[in-house]
Amino acid sequence: MPDTNREIQELLVDYAETLRDGSIPVFLKSLTHDEAKIIAASREFWDATEVVQTLNGAGFADKAAIPNVGLFISRVDAKIASRLKQAKATPPPPSRGQARTRGSGCKRNTSTKPATKVEKSTEEQI
Amino acid sequence: MQNTHGSERHAMNKRLRNALKGLTSPDPERRRRAMEPFVRATFETFIRYLYRYLGNEIECEDVLEDVYADIWEKPDHLRNIINERQLLRTVYLYYMRKRLREVYKRINRNLCLSQKNLMNLIAPELGVLEILSQSELQQALHRMLSRLKARERRAIELWMEGVSNRAIANELKTTVGAVKMLEFRTMLKLKKMLHEYCGEN
Asked: Which of A39, A109, B69, B81 has a CA between 20 and 30 Å from the CA of residue A126?
């Protein structure tokens, strides 16, 4: 897409083409500041994108190769397993009551650090 | 899931209903076991839906993998689902949109389109057309295309077949610029017709 002064219909068609080809980043990268402004201000563009997306779903999804579900399920399961592992590794967030008591402890802890620093610096001054 | 017709499309099959029951259980292991039948029952519909916005099977799979894992982690939104259409809308609104927003967020950081407009482009709000199911939508599109002028219909049909604008211009014996304008105007016309159809139904 070498053209940098595209009009709204050209922008829409270019978006539709990249969506159809599964390469939206190409369209995003091709946009100039002025074109982005035109898009932002154009009601017609957004109206037309809805149809483009609908047509893309209706027309091209049938041609798309539907991946192997069994293989995909194992991917999902592996992802869940890793999240389970992560959840087990990190302790659960404390309940509200605990959070309050712990929170006050934490505050004391965090407040001690700068306090000691202040103390030290005053000591040094003295 | 998308093969259901007529009044059946509103109901859920027993397998999906049971999977949803398992998915909303507080026990994470039970939710994990329920994921397989849930994925089997919904995969094709979900990937088809994501394809609308991405047009790329690999990205659709990656996004969907995260969507299912998110559903497993926080299935609260799926508690009171009564039919497949509601399921698709809920999954899109609460799970797919979140993941879709992240797809191109990183690459757009240094680009011209604002993040808000990028989101509108990649993960838009549900429009009026969403009240139609996939089969209804295809029927409606078929009907709307037949109501277009021959030239408009040919341009859209060729475009949907994956033909380039230059080839469409050659076929219609016109310029590429004229084809782009024709396609743009026809998209707007289709939008208006589809909205009227949704209003009537």
From this structure: A109
